[in-house]
Every structure is written in structure tokens, then in C-alpha cells.
## 1
Amino acid sequence: MKFRLATIVVGLMLNSAASGQNIKLEITGREVWKPVTLTIIGPMVNPNADPNPFRDCRLTVIFENGGDRILVPGYLGGDLNWHAHLLPDRPGIWSYEVNFRSGPDIALSDDLNAGQPLTGDGLKGTHTVIANNQQTPGLLRYVGGRYLQFAGNNKYFIKAGADSPENFLAYEGFANTKPNHKYYGHRVDLILGPQERYTSITNICSVASYFAKVGVNSMYMLTMNVDGDGKDVWPWIKPDVRDRFDTKKLSQWNDVFKFMNDRGVALHIVTQEQENDQLLDNGELGPLRKLYYRELIARFAHHPMLFWNLGEENTNTTAQQKAFAEYIRKLDPYDHPIVIHTFPNQKQKVYQPLLGFDGIDGPSLQIHDMKDTHAQTLEWINKSAEAGRPWVVCLDEIGPANTGVKPDAVDPDHDDVRRYALWGNLMAGGAGVEWYFGYKYPNNDLNCEDFRSRENMWKQTKITVDFFQQHLPFVDMQSHDELTAAKDDYCFALVGEVYAVYLPPRRTTSLTLPVGRFSVKWFDPRQGGKLQSGSIRSLDGPGELPLGDPPADVDRDWVVLIERDQP
């Protein structure tokens, strides 16, 4: 059966120009690193129609500028019109061409000539994009090293995120969703911009406002857990109807995702929970899985701060994992980072065969004993570098599963988490952390309503990330624990220039330095603040030289910053 959209007069917005075909088309947005949305407006399309508008219709818009060609998949929106989002990386005149086709399972085909043309197919035009004067960070991307980098301002990203609740999207304000989260307590945190108006999604947006205040810059969230712990998140009209998508719900998700990105919170999209590994196509890259990935990419890939995770505690085969990653990589026009999570005792089984594979940009580490964080971060940094594709190694879940990061009311100082997990990852060259909340405590991995329950941990994480961003050329530094005399500290260095040494409580140490004079400053990883002077203010190399004592509180942990004096 051939589909047709009603033919109505072309309507264009802003300063776009299009060839004359009888279809109404709108283009909104015009700034670099801000979404430009092309909308084809027609009569209402019933998501339950037959043929299936998700499988049997396919919108792709081809954008071009400066010889670069970007194929952007489109989708049927909550307003029941068709949309495609360009995330432009440069100002200038962008041309576009609409590819709008119909046919059985056309959405699964990458042949632009497959199927039959729908009204609007072949529509061409141009749209002018202007520079963004707000110094927007831009697309967060993998650039071949240990850290993700923003394409707009070239700054590097260190993750300071929340791993719980994994069913973050099981929110009462979303259509067709079990109301397991309400987030009422965060209503006081909501700060809206002048053009922002939200009603049903106000409380979940309030969480993002709180995150922005305390420095949380990433949120881990399942988009599908039909089976598993929560059984409360899916993108479809029903959990057992897996080729028809809930356009209203997904539009609401998109609004929340925009709100989060606008406040500097990245989207860690975890595409399935372990119990769902075989749910789509018996674990293969079949039609239902391809459609699922296409819908996620078409609807959400235009958000600049996003990374795809192939699955929590994933048990698919290596061949399946590679097929998933290759398909996402091919379809995602913005090449977002792709990572994978696994059980603590299956890292060798899962990660070793993926080393050097260009579809994976890093592991999403789950570690049962946080004391192993430093060694395991180093292990996968070194192994991936040796394989020729350095990984971005983040710590996304610490155990035991019943504990994780305890509430402040139980563990107000979080000394062990700070020492072994937070500083353990970053001083190995890791790219950051997300904090998991164990099921033994209130506000846990399934029922967390109040993120203030771990506010002290958010503050300490921000203190640490700020130290790295403000005082260290961390992209050029590496772990050099061998340069200190102590066996239980961490040393991170650009040898000959800058050294950071994390000292556990009641420790002092010496550091092997080359020829030259070096300044010595101390930093409080618990409270932050300015750099301070200790008992020794400078060192003259070469040799193994004592770092002295901290300014105060010798029974607490400290960080020593040693920098070569500039002539």
C-alpha cells in the first residue's frame, strides 16, 4: 500500500529557500551547535495505522555544507508530524534534501532509493546557520584519547554523574508510564529560562536544576527494562508491542533531555538492562533491534552531550555487541561515544575481545570492591592503548550492590569512596565517575526520589573535578605511581613539569624529580578551596625529595601539587 501525505502549500520559516513542491515544511533553529529542526507537516498520522508508520515509512534528510554530507534520520513526533534534527557544527548556508519513502520495513533499509516516494520526497532547499555567540561547548565526542572533548570550545570532559536510579525515566508525568518516580522534593530547585514552560515534566526537570547547582554533569538512565528490576521503562505503546512507539512519551523524554543538556548534564543512554539482552530478536541485530536503535538515534542524537551504552551487565556475544555498535555508529549522524557495561567478574570476558575495535570507545566499569578502582582503571587504559585505540575509562558503578554510595546520613564524609573510587579513577587517568546507590539504603537504585541524600558526595566530586580542570594539564598526564616512595598513594604526572600526589590519611612521601626547581602546594580534597603551603615550599632536583607535611589535619587525606618553576 502506498502512503500519501496531504498536499498543501509550501510554508517556510526564517530565511530558508526551497524548491516548489506542494508540501508544508518548516525549519526552526539557526545557531551553530543548536538543533535545526526540519518538520514536514501533514494530516494526523495514527501510530496504530496499517501499514505501520514506524516500520513502513522512513524519513531521512540529507544536509550538506562545505562538501560534508550528513544523513539525518527522521521520526514521527508527538505532534504526529515528521521531524529531523541537524546539529550544525559551522555557520553558513546548509542545503537539504528530503528523502521520504514508503514500503515494507523501509525503516530498516539504508538504500535511499528503496521503496516508493511519499509526497515531499526530493524536496530541496537551503537554510542559513549563524555563529553562536554564547560559546556553546558543542558536541561531546571521542577524539582518540582517554577523555571526551567538546567540539565547540575544545575543552575536555570529566564525568561527575549519577548512576542511580537506573529507572530515572519511570516518572509519573510521562505518558503511558508506571508512576514510580515523582521527584516532588526537588520542585524547590526548578529554575526555568525565559522561554521555558513545563507542566507534566516539571519535577523531573527540577532534578536537572539541582544537578546543575551541585556539579552533577551526567545521568545514567535505562531506556528499556521490560524485564529486570524495575520493569517500568520502555519507548513503545505497550511493553509487548515493540514496533510501535509512544510518540507522546518520547516527545516528553526529548523535552527533559534538552533541559538536562542545557544545564550541562550529559545523557548516558543505557539501551537495555541485562534481563532484556535477548528480548529483541533473540539477542541478534534483527528488525526490532534495528528499529529500536533507529528511533533512539532519530529522536535524541541531536543532543550534543550524549553517550550510548549497549547495555547494563551485558551478556550478548562479542559478535552481537560488535554488530550493535557498528549499526549505531553507521546510523548516528553525530558519532556519539559508545560504551558497554558488564558484571564485575566478566570484564575480561567482555572487554578483552573488544580491544582495538573502533565501534567501542570505552568500558562502563562496574567494580565490586572500590579498592580495586585504581588498578582496574589502569588495566583498561593500558590494554586499550596497546591495542591501538585508547579507551575512555569511567567508573560507573561501585559495589557491593547493597551499598554503593551510602546516604550522607549514614556516611557523611564518604572517605573511602573519595579515596579509592573518585581519586582512584582520576589519578589513574580515568575519565570520571557515576555514583550508584545500593539497595540496602533509602533513596536507592530503584526508588531514589531525593538526590540530596548524597549531596556531600556530589560536592566532593565537584571539588575533585574542579581541581583537575583548573590546576592540571590532565590530558597530557599519566599515572606514575612508581615515582613516589609510598605504596598506597597515587601519583599523576607530566614528568618533568607537573605532578599531583594523592596522600591517604597520616601519610607523607618523597618524589623522584629531575633537575630543576619545583614549587610545592597542598590541596584539600574534602573541602576544596585555594592551594595552600605546607612545611616545604620548594624542591630542587634531581633526586628523591621529601614533600613535607600538609598545612593542617595530618590525620586526613591531602593532595600535593608539584610544578616546575617557570623562568
Note: Helices lie at 202-214, 247-262, 287-300, 318-331, 347-351, 373-386, 415-426, 455-471.
## 2
Amino acid sequence: MMSIPAAERERFTLPLARRRLLAERGAIDADRYRRELVDYVRRFDPQVRAFADWRPADLEGSPLPYGCTVSYKDTIDVAGFPTRLGIRSGYRSYPSRSAAIASQLSARGLLCVGKAAVTECALGTERPSLNPTYPDLSASGSSTGSAVSVAAGFCDVSVGTDSGGSIRWPAVYCGATALRLTPRSDRLTGVHAVSPSLESVGLIARTPADLDWLWRTYGLGAALGAEPSLQRHRLRIGVTVPPGERLHSEVADALAAVADRLADRGHVLSHPDLGWAWRQRADAWELLSREAYDGFGALLDDTRCTPLAADTRLAVETGARTSDARYAELRRRQQQVSSRLARLLTDEFDLLAVPLEKGLPDRADRQYASVVPTEQPDAVDLSLTILASHARLPVLALPVVLSTDGAPIGLQLLARPGAEDLLISAAKLVSALCQPYHLQEAS
């Protein structure tokens, strides 16, 4: 498989704090940097297909290398760019206003340089982008182009959406870091959400250090309403996996190793019984499916996007099986899980640590099902990412180690609503304990 040469990519994936320092010292010529970045994207985006829409003039006039650039998943409205929803038959809408998250980041000085490719309606099985870091692995979905645009160095941060794991899988598979923000209804203004009751927007950065630098340099915590983090010398961390479900041995080993290193640093680790929450995953997927039908069902017969791919149609139609009465019951159960886990993460734990998934990352040469199960799922098919979504929690996902065949194994950190500061600090801690992960790549 074709890949971006490491030497080329390294120039445009410098740690953001270091790049700013070098630019301020005159060690990076700004005009030359921008010209070379435009040339780099022109040459390599056709290979990895990160962007649905990219305009060289935006990069040429950007604040780089002093400032930072952002791309947006193509289910998020940005004024001046068409929104395609990943629909391959030519659908376009032309928003007059940007989504709330795009307006907030623009006001903080982050320049949009493109719309990132997405699976069709964020539900389809065809993954449009290729993994620039681990070419033998899938770039996953649905925020596929968001992860690829950041990992490739085409932009500094990307905003995706996440209802079931859609920023966490692509980020980790591409060796990057994802922060799903606390779900709030106002965050979905201008977002074509798959599942409003589970969904939130989130940020993908190359490393926890880059995410932390962006968060603090651009005042994103204040802009996005996060709580200032209280510094804790001893974090209370609950390590949890679904009872009775088998993890791949290397995933289990990675989770144990991270837990041991945290305990060695004086943090308090325990293994709470959360079987009651894990057992709600089938409900979560049914809820997601019904809301996907509510949100995208009208597109099934929309002449602007006919025909949708068969896999997308099936994923959308699946939700029609859930009655209004059943939907109301699912929402009631979701509220119970959400309230109970939020209390747990306030009173008993600061964080929950969960593997990204039970198995290793998907290979690039296989076809995979839609994120929405089209048949009644059983326990072995239920993902681990849906727990945080169902409970409406913020969650951060990062790679912690490479498997024996060179695939990144990911960890999720869950916190109470509003605790994004804490998640970023904890991710920096975990990343430091797992060094030199970010220096390793598949050969």
C-alpha cells in the first residue's frame, strides 16, 4: 500500500509548541512553510483522501506556522463550504451559517482549511480515507478524514462527531488522540447528527501534548464551558471491562500494564462492578439506530442523494423497527445510566479506564459492517466505545502501546460531565508512562 514518506510527514507534524517556538525564533520561514505545506497536501491527499473539500488559498493565507489550522467533518456545517454528508451521488447543501462549534473555534483564532471526508451519512461501510500512519490498518470511521487530515499533518486539529465511537476509532487507528466533549444540545447546532441523545462533537489532535497546548493556548476550555480541573496528586481510577467478555490477550496486557504504571505512581486503582451499565449496550445501539432513522430517513427518497448506497439505506432503515413507545423507554433507561455513572464519577472515581475495543484494530484489506448494527447484536459484537456515549460522558481515547504486529492498542478515559480539563491532564500522564509510543510506527 502507498504511504506518505516519514521524512515528509515529520516536517508537518512537529509538536505544536515546538513549531511555535521555532517560528518565533526565525528557524522556520513562514512563507516557505506555507508554500511547502500546500505542495505537500496537493501531492499526498490524493493518496490518503482526507479531504472532501480543500482550498489551497486558505492554507496560503493562514497564520501558519505561528497559528493553527482546523478541518471539520463533512457532517458539520461551515459557512462558505458545501456540506456533503459523505453522500457519493452528488448531494450538496450550502449553509449560510457555521455550526456552533465552528463559530466558537473560529472566534478563538483557529482557521478552517477544509472539510474532512466521512462515511456516507456517517453510517455507511465504505471508508473513504486511508491510514497515513499505519497503511496496513483501516482508518475506521465515521470521522475518517478528520483523523487522517491530522495524522498526515494536513492540519493541526480536526473536529469530528461521535455517537458510538466515531472519533475514537479513527484517531487511535491513525496513532492520534481524540477528545469527545461533554454532550450538550447546543453543541449540535449546525451538526447533522446521527443520534442526538448519544452524540457530541470532539477534537482530534496528534498527541495529548498537542491537545493540551491547543486547549490552553486558545482558551478552548473557557470557550467550550469546561470546568477548570482541580489538580489531584492521587487519581481515583476505576478499571472496567464487560463481565464475561473476552479481551484479546494483547489488549488485556496493555490495560494491565497501564494500570500497574499508574498504581506505581501512587494513583488509586480499583475494579468496580459496572455490569449494570455494560448490559445496556444493546439498548444504546437500538436508540442510536432509531435516531439515525429519524434524522436521515427523509434522505432515502430525496432525489438529491438517490441512490444512497445499499449499506447506508439498510443502516438508516433499521431504526424504523423501534416504536415510539419503545423509544421513550430507551430514553428513560439512558437517563438512569447517565445519572448513575455521573454520580459514580463524582463521588467515587475521577476516571474510568476502558480499552478502546476488545480486539486489535481493523485491517485495511477487509470490509466491515456499518457502525449501526442491522441485526440484533449479541455480546460479542457490542463495542466498548458505546458505554461513554450512552451515558453522555466526555471521553478521551489515545494509543498506549503497539501490538506485536505493529497496530496501536487504545485506551479510553471517561470522566464526569464537564471534566475535559481532567481528561487532558490524565492523557498526558498516561502518554508519559507509555513513552516512547509516539515515536514508534509500523515498518
Note: Residues 438-443 have pLDDT under 50 and may be disordered.
